[in-house]
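The following block was generated as part of the benchmark described in Methods. Ligand: alpha-D-glucopyranuronic acid.
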Amino acid sequence: MKNRIASALLVLLCLVPAARSRAEDGKYHDKDVVLDEAMVPPYDLPPLLVSSAGKPITTPEEWFQIRRPEILSLFANLIYGIVPVPESPIQTTFEVLKTDRAFMHGTATRKDVRIKFTNARGSADMTILVFTPNGAARPVPAILQLSFASTKDDGHDAHPEKPRFLRNGIPLGEILQRGFGYVVVSQGALVRHNEVEFQSGIHPLFYRTHQSFPKANEWGCISAIAWSASRAMDYLESDHDIDARRVAILGHSKMGKTTLWAAAQDQRFALAISAQSGCAGAALWKRNYGENMEKMVTRFPYWLCRNAWKFVRNEEDLPVDQHMLIACIAPRPVYVHSGVEDTWADPRGEYLGAYHASEVYRLLGKKGLTSETSPPVGEAILRSDVGYHNRPGGHSIEMFDWLKFLDFAEYHLLKR
Ligand code: GCU
């Protein structure tokens, strides 16, 4: 283990002088990354609708049978990491730990549900929270949010009506009042935020004999959190209060990246909302604007899988770009969100990721983004299967954003 960490550090240190020389030759500036549209290099996106064998993809069947599986496999093996098949089968159990029908002054029910995984190698568990409006006819559609906060903080929480995970400006009342349930999945339940050892949490259950660390193409943090979102969905399919066919997945930043990866793979998510997901989210790698592969893997070596390290300062060699990930969500509606001052996440690249993915939405008879030009700041594109807005301000989800997300989800999951 020590050797592995040492060699990882060595790789990372080796990257530093090269990055510096880029700054010297004028290519990079300000924090060593491109933050000026004029400095974006010319780039070539891999074709979405041509198979790896060179076959044009012209029908929905060819998309689903040939191209989509190829693209998902490339993302799994090169970017986020595959979930290996465990040697010892995993048993999963659901346990409703607590049901509070008097939540929010009696307007909502809160359920704390433990999902436990056990096999011959050990066990791990995650607790999800499920809120449903008391007045609404059941089952209700739901917003499943991948949260940075813990869902296990109750015992020491002094504000039972406003626990920690809700304090980040989440308009729970508005969500419930619009007829949605709200489900919280904590990113830290099965893997730590910046995990480096992979000795606790979910990974050990999946190790093969004599394995103690994920292989280069095996799951990093984002992939593990996406897996946990799918396990939450397994539970929701068994919960009669929730309409599991109308669950939107939502996340911000690192969780916005995870949202896209989870929704791309798991077609049970009916809709995806990816807020300011940036690098390894909606933003195109090949624009090399804002955070890039080098920054991502030096600061967070294991959010992605180790194979991704091969593309440091070499994004042009990637056989995929992030528009292809968004395309794997089609025909299900997807919403991409940016902030004008959130330049690290490349708002323009996020828009272009969504715009280029629209090609597949059109192939599947859906409505995508039609203009390569980003819409005016503050204007939301809602009545399209690929939605988008960019609002003034920085890296956060504001009330304005929430209302647009809910309008989008309402339009696609409730009103049509
Ligand atoms: C860092 C990281 C981003 C990420 C963000 C977050 O800024 O560079 O890629 O989106 O953290 O998760 O808040």
